[in-house]
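Request: Mind sharing a record?
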Amino acid sequence: MSIYDKARELGKEMLECEAAQKLNAAREAFDNNAEAQKLVEEYAELKQKFNDIMADKDSDKMPLTDIGNRITEIEKQIKENEVTAGLMRAETEYGAFVNSVFNIISATIQGNDTSDCGGCCSSCTGCH
């Protein structure tokens, strides 16, 4: 088996882990929730509008305060929305899982194989 085959196998296993399944479920819940989608869309549109005004040196900057306040309000709603908050948690957990796998790979490449470690500790490169 080549290194590329092993990488594909690892990738498939990573997609089947609990963190990936939680992420997929959270994405599906988001995709099926119009309110959550609307919040994220509105947030993205306002951020783009804010950035466009900031980038245009000739534009009137007065609307920035109102747009910034609305962005803050929507951020709060996104954090309080069960679906969007669940998606953010799942993305964070999956990201941490992926980072821990890459940390183990990196440590092994560098000659610091931690395969005999029994868990997570402050000196470790990641949980495994």
Notes: The first helix runs from residue 3 to 16.
